[in-house]
Specification:
Layout (H helix, E strand, L loop, with lengths): L1 H33 L4 H26 L5 E3 L1 H10 L5 H21 L1 H8 L3 H16 L1 H8 L1 H17 L4 H16 L23 H29 L6 H15 L7 E3 L2 H7 L11 H15 L2 H10 L2 H24 L5 H13 L8 H16 L33
Antiparallel strand pairs: 1-2
Length: 415
């Protein structure tokens, strides 16, 4: 009976590992390749991310006995795609990964820094993320035009599963893409691919423009789009893990993995709901087992990073990006909602979105940084001070909570 009670959280953790990996590994590989990684370096980065996730999830789960799910930064990988080639190549990008990890550790050690990040207006943060992932989310449309025979089955499978089994929509689309590649792709397929994992060390370099265009936005989108929502999801299910030690731990894990090509690991947001909810186990005290199983699952999946890279190389680039775009559509929807739902700050959010989505590079610095700057300046320009209340000796007539009418009696002072 005891073993039967462990089975549900173990299965939940393994499922969340598979869903998290299959839903966005194409985004990770596309992002690393975009900033200059070779196929072998990108596969090494994917392996390093999986190992960092496994070690961190298992360690934190055992330490705090809470379902603290860990994932790679999917918005951060999308940022790399939007940034494209950088001065100094992949070593400069790895240097930016290290600085972003250091900022994460600093946020855990210095309370005011974490508060400063949390103080970034939600519309501006949402608009920056939406601008970063917009080009990826339009890729399925471009794929339909360029490769209709390959892209149409992928999108149809995604749409059907999104309607009836949402968590399997992107893995199903990926499976459809694999079948399409096997049918229409080059001869030989994956027969020459190797399952042997390979970790390649890249000596980092520090390039000021790359640090500004990658390190700072990577840190910000990881905090705003992963760590903050991840804590919110856990709070929804009654868990309150200490944020600062989690930031330090994930930052250190990111720093160790960065020289091998990993961009960032952080708290999970989507898969956190899969491991922290009541479906994992009726007893909240046993749900931490799911995150340990998630870590074990990620470790196993990471060993196939070279095979994943071989699959991506066989596929037309637009098809790979299309699958990544399908994975990011829900993130685009939520980030746009955060950007424009509130009337206050909407103009600044729109400016942030437009500048970020433009993809413009100025002084060697990518558009995500300039979008954040433009949005912040717009918010300051349009900020209006509220007029100070006019002093009066008259007491306002209280409002009847039922009728809403004003009554003649006055309230005692200080009520």
């Amino acid at each position: 009976m005891r073993h039967h009670g462990l089975l549900p959280p173990i299965l939940a953790g393994l499922v969340s590992a598979v869903v998290g990996y299959a839903s966005s590994f194409t985004v990770v590989l596309a992002g690393l390749r975009a900033v200059g990684a070779s196929p072998a370096q990108a596969a090494s980065g994917l392996l390093a991310l999986c190992l960092a996730i496994a070690a961190t999830a298992i360690g934190l789960g055992l330490r705090y006995r809470m379902p603290i799910s860990i994932a790679w930064s999917t918005p951060g990988a999308a940022l790399l795609v939007a940034t494209g080639p950088v001065q100094g190549g992949f070593p400069a990008a790895v240097g930016a990964f290290l600085i972003a990890a250091a900022l994460m550790v600093l946020a855990g050690l210095v309370p005011w820094l974490a508060r400063a990040i949390a103080a970034i207006p939600r519309p501006i943060a949402g608009a920056m993320l939406a601008g970063v992932i917009l080009s990826l989310c339009t890729a399925p449309v471009r794929a339909m035009v360029e490769l209709p025979l390959l892209a149409t089955p992928v999108i149809l499978v995604w749409a059907l599963l999104f309607r009836f089994a949402r968590q399997w929509a992107v893995p199903g689309a990926l499976a459809a893409a694999v079948v399409a590649i096997a049918v229409h792709g080059p001869g030989g397929g994956l027969s020459g691919a190797t399952l042997r994992p390979s970790a390649l060390l890249t000596v980092p370099t520090l390039n000021p423009s790359v640090l500004v265009s990658i390190a700072v936005p990577l840190f910000l989108v990881t905090m705003a789009a992963q760590n903050v929502p991840g804590m919110a999801v856990m709070a929804t299910y009654g868990y309150e893990p200490p944020l600062r030690p989690l930031l330090v731990t994930t930052g250190l894990a990111s720093a160790v993995a960065a020289p091998f090509g990993a961009h960032a690991v952080n708290l999970a947001a989507i898969t956190a709901a899969m491991t922290a909810g009541p479906d994992t186990h009726p007893d909240p005290r046993k749900r931490w087992i799911a995150t340990v199983a998630l870590g074990a699952g990620q470790l196993t999946l990471g060993l196939g990073a070279s095979l994943a890279m071989a699959l991506v190389l066989l596929s037309p680039p637009i098809l790979v990006v299309a699958v990544a775009g399908l994975a990011l559509l829900p993130a685009l929807g939520s980030s746009l909602a955060n950007a424009v739902t509130e009337a206050e700050g909407r103009e600044a959010a729109v400016v942030t979105f437009v500048v970020t989505a433009s993809g413009t590079t100025i002084l060697g610095i990518g558009s995500a940084f300039w979008g954040l700057v433009a949005g912040g300046l717009t918010a300051l320009l349009l900020h209006r001070r509220r007029p100070a209340p006019v002093a009066t000796t008259e007491q306002p007539e209280p409002e009847n909570p039922v009728s809403g009418s004003r009554e003649s009696a006055t309230l005692p002072a200080g009520r």
